[in-house]
Design goal:
homotetramer, 423 residues, alpha/beta, Rossmann fold, Argininosuccinate synthetase, chain A, domain 2, 3 domains, 5-stranded parallel β-sheet, 5-stranded antiparallel β-sheet, globular
Chain lengths: 423, 423, 423, 423
């Protein structure tokens, strides 16, 4: 990596024209981008400390991240507003994601949700606290800037949006250099682009090259299959109306259930994702994620839907779910189409109930038992079939269904005849 | 199981009214249904032996099945027409299935294809050989009757279709009993409803109950993960225009490649499917399949598409692929919509090229290396990105993209105002 | 038309085997099929008069039809149960149809709805009144048999379904002949297959040949454009949440509004439909309908949606609306997928408000004025645009949006190079 | 309108930083934007006259526009390259549009196509002639900038794109003022934003306010219904493989046929469009178009498809056609997904053949005769139906189709029972 010329970076920052702002609410995670942002507000935007309002939103990123945020706040001499949104995240966001089989080409939407949740809270706080601007630390290469911008526009369209890393065109190394020069804490441990939610951890956000191997130490939940436990582990999960509510017989709030299951599934080699992702701007990146609990829950939810909802719903819901994931990934959680998709999905989930016993073993999730009292395949339901169905009915049914093909065959003859006639 | 009263079954058969036929082409696999069919043509339909034309179509069901077909032909004293359609099946059918990511809710369409291929050949032979009817052995509970009927109507709409097991309402046990009474060979080994193609083996076709455990001995390719090899096995596969053409460095015809890969992937615990399936008549069944090669090939094809085709193609192709699978499963291979879907798919595959190294280990397929010269993520392509993209462009791009949300926010205010106005 | 041999028809009826039934609820419209049905219950099914429960459901077919039903009841000496479902039809069914732009390839679903509503009421009455069977008069060639059967299965799956015209294989002329012979009233005026609801009148149901001209006298509301009023007529219509609530300034219940508008739009030449329709069995028929009010309302509703809901909703809702129409046409009103589609649609309609002035003139519907306070195009909303948007933003926005094409161009170069390399 | 301060506009232009370019190919239509562009190249970009390469592409905009382009060239003292793309436009573009029922929420894509065709030709000429930049005259508020930019990136990604009206932030009045000051011809007749192709004429591009009435004089082809001919006019049109090939018995190339039909249909009051359109940037505008021939051709093509292609194709093609229109409107003609959609569409059109007689009368298009030898409804085809179909088949077909509803009914009972159990 080239040596950074701190003076040049400072010059670039100082020469970039900026809008005038007086009081700024800042999305503060405690990571590099947001700590630098605080100092930029002081040095470049000339905002007095009493008018810098850092907002920290806990969406389940974990104790380690939150402790770091607190430590860095002390060093920076700021007093962030600490807000806990974990309950809302689990109940209002994650539940919808599970019911929609949340899957953007293999990625279980997570950061894509939390950024929008954080942006909404920051926007609302900003208005409440009399700010004229909001600030956040996204780069100009990724998806988060769009997610946050859309949400700011939704909840505080009158405020100025500041996005300094992007708008001063700062690279990662430049940020680190300028932070060191300015005495802003730089934590080497929080690597560039990682983002963790309880549902899925994103690793190195798009910075992985095509044939870079994944070292075993990058995982926090996952034990790779080869090193995972040698004996299978059995887990019981119960779903009510499309959501997991009970783990190994114990009723648990969704966040607790996910937390436990990440641990259990992770130690059995489950949850690795290595994929190509189409970013909002249309560029592809290779992305690495780990999401042990999400793997288990989404696989079972999908199996359960195939048992409980009709074939026609399954086929149509594929398109609804795909659009849902596209929109949420694309920063459109608060778009009215997304609400309409949610209404569709909710309407299908009342009957999605069942108990599973699964065997977890070195990366495999094998369903060993299903209890599905309200499925369309339960013994109660099938008795009707055994009782009433006579295979001879199918004689005429096949004939009626085949008429279309008879007509098509007849048309082929007509077309052949017409062709011959022309010659 | 209740004892079968052979006399009663004979009576049922003899009393059922039938259409008059003179010369009948019969889809002959050598299994129970088709051997019984031969004898029914003799005893019930009064067709002379010279007018019974059994047609055996080899679609890759394997030596064991074909040997049995030959043995039974001798016992029945018939001389089937033996036709080899393996090349057509691989080149004209399987290739299309791979490119369309052939997946009917988790099932890689296979028997659904071969039945239609067989029906087409039988219909064409029937016309060529002056028959006035075609016969096939489907039951009235399954999907195959529709698949074959549609295809018969497409290629020989003027012929009478005979489907005796269904139309005489025979159960499996009744079939066996009547065969024994009539001296027709009954092979205990070929269990009810199994069907094997090179691409996917269907086990016990829908007769598996909800919580029946799957004994290890039911698999022919698969070694369950716990008993699979202890060391990972590495495999190289190369795709050209969406199709695998090379295995471990050796160019292979698709059927040979699939055959080898079934063996290799199977011994590494890959290929088990346990799912709910929506049959053509709308009934759900639990289905068990094994398809080791299909698992590997479809996973890689899909990964390759995500790297090589555009985001918009990926999203739209989801719907095309889902429809493709629905139609092929539903017995509509020869429907013009299916042709149009094929045309769409073919148009996307020219750029789907790449080499993979995958690690197979106890049920896991891990991609360890990709060479993707024509992907949209290749280093050659990305150089353009590095060279040209300036993150500051995103400032205005985010603003333009966010205008929609600004307008929606404004509308919310208007609606609130109107509401207040009404009060 | 060939002369009908009444004796032969009677013989055919008497020889057809039937299920034993004791007490039968009958969908009674007073038309040919249902009056014949009453007599068949007496003569063929041997049901005593006290066990024949004719149910007449008023869904807005109009006074003429209902009077005829009463007259024929007297002649037949039956006392039907008279039930008024007009309110339910308008509020629960028609409203949903309007919001979903109800359009099955050009046909505004109507009879497809009423048949299912009637079948539900008949099934419920049958259970309440201790019947063991339901009877209805559909033929075996059309769509209604499926619509009614599905609904019977939904609300009274345990009852036997009798469908005599179909199951005795009676043609129209045979029905008339046997009615005359048996003293059942045959009303020449009610022509074969016509069906009228307040929303759309179906004319001669599929019996129109390809090049048959449409005589002017077939219409009841419509005055063909050439003969329509010479001066334009202006109409004001107001929509609230996707539904028309006010006509020419007067608040009206939906059925009254539709009734008035049929009259006004009809005399201005609006409402003729001449189209090919894909029946449930996959056969095409040429269908003639008249639906003046539906034309005006659906055109305005669609215009209003384009003004009030987002582009993304409009695009996705196309697919939802198309599926809605397919399902309702196909007799699947009570299918859970249909409910989920309704939930989607309902979620989009809160903002669909506006007032229209339209000019009706000889078949043309011209919008001359729109007041759209909650549209995304209202002056209130656009002020934001004028205020904030700077066309220079588009410079970078276009660049970012165009990157995808730059990458595709680069790939083309790579592919060309690879090709050359191979040679 | 406020008086324009020419000095201020000149200052704005002169102070805006620009990229250095040497030789520039310019899309030259002869309208205000492109004539101003020539002068900007001279005065602001300092490009010598020999390095200004104006390219005029004839896509059927008509003699009047082309004459004006020539006159203005003389005044400007430039010698444009005159290229005729009418044949390509008709054969390669318009044909595809017709087959795809080209309809973007009511608008028959036209300018959206020609801009991309022009941009491709300009890009190719630019490379051939050694330019380092391309220039075009779009504003920053509309769709054309994206259409042209995408195409430039596709065919000449290495060239600089100049878009001066947008990048100097010039309003219409400013453009006129500066032109007058600089001696650039300003033609008052060509009103702001009009764009004419043979297929559809766009009027005042989005500048129409919500309740602005449309004066009769804005139309060039259309005579409003009230003033249109008093007698109906009959027209014969024949389609082969989805395209109109014969008008009133005479074989015509597509451009000639469209030209004639615009005249005929226009004088009968056909072709007015007044709609809300979702622009590429997500803003809605009210748009006025006239497209008489397009109305007739698209209506007949759609009727013909309903007669000739299967129900399943019709349903799926709706989604394909909608996506096609979205992409073409959105400037993605050269996107690989668009190619794949074309492949789908082409595959469906072989059978789309037929002759129509239509009555045109004061805005109405009434089909009075259809000859459809290869439709699925031709008498030849229907003979099969009459011959073979027995309505009694439907008895069992309805039962089989209804099983799904029986199972759903059963499930409802189970759910009710479970609910009661819980209480």
């Amino acid at each position: 990596m080239a040596r950074i010329n701190v003076k040049a970076v400072e010059k670039k920052i100082m020469e970039t024209p900026i809008p005038a702002v007086k009081r700024v609410a800042l999305a503060y995670s405690g990571g590099l981008d947001s700590t630098l942002a605080v100092e930029l507000l002081r040095r470049k935007f000339n905002v007095a400390d009493k008018n810098i309002i850092p907002i920290n939103v806990d969406v389940g990123q974990g104790k380690e991240d939150q402790d770091k945020a607190k430590d860095n706040a002390k060093i920076l001499k700021i007093k962030p507003v600490w807000l806990d949104a974990r309950k809302e995240f689990t109940e209002q966001w994650l539940g919808k994601a599970i019911r929609a089989n949340s899957n953007y080409n293999g990625y279980p939407c997570s950061t894509s949700m939390t950024r929008q949740l954080i942006a909404r809270i920051v926007a609302q706080e900003a208005r409440k606290r009399g700010c004229d601007a909001v600030m956040e630390g996204s780069t100009g290469k990724g998806n988060d800037q769009y997610r946050m911008h859309n949400t700011f526009m939704t909840f505080a369209p009158e405020l100025t949006v500041l996005c300094p890393v992007r708008d001063f065109d700062l690279g990662r190394a430049e940020e680190e250099a300028i932070c060191k020069a300015w005495g802003v804490p730089v934590d080497e441990m929080i690597s560039g682009g990682d983002d963790k939610t309880m549902w899925c951890r994103s690793i190195a956000s798009g910075a992985v090259d095509l044939n870079q191997e994944l070292p075993a130490k990058i995982w926090i939940w996952l034990v790779p299959p080869e090193k995972a436990r040698k004996r299978p582990e059995y887990v019981d999960i119960e779903f009510v109306e499309g959501l997991p509510v009970r783990l190994n017989g114990k009723e648990l709030a969704l966040d607790k259930l996910v937390e436990k299951l990440n641990f259990i599934a992770g130690r059995n080699g489950i949850g690795r994702i290595d994929m190509f992702e189409d970013g909002i701007m249309g560029l592809k990146s290779r992305e690495i994620y780990e999401a042990p609990a999400a793997h288990v829950i989404l696989k079972l939810h999908s199996d359960l839907e195939q048992a409980c909802i009709t074939s026609q719903e399954i086929q149509f819901k594929k398109g609804v779910d795909a659009k849902w994931a596209q929109m949420v990934y694309g920063g459109e959680w608060y778009h009215p189409l997304k609400d309409a998709l949610d209404a569709f999905v909710a309407s299908t989930q009342k009957v999605v109930n069942g108990k599973y016993k699964v065997k977890l073993y070195k990366g495999n999730i094998e369903i060993v038992k299903r209890e599905l009292p309200t499925s369309l395949f339960s013994p109660e339901i099938r008795s009707i079939k055994a009782g009433g169905f006579d295979q001879r009915w199918s004689h005429d049914a096949a004939k009626v269904r085949g008429i279309r093909f008879e007509i098509l065959a007849k048309r082929k003859q007509v077309m052949r005849k017409l062709k011959r006639g022309k010659k």
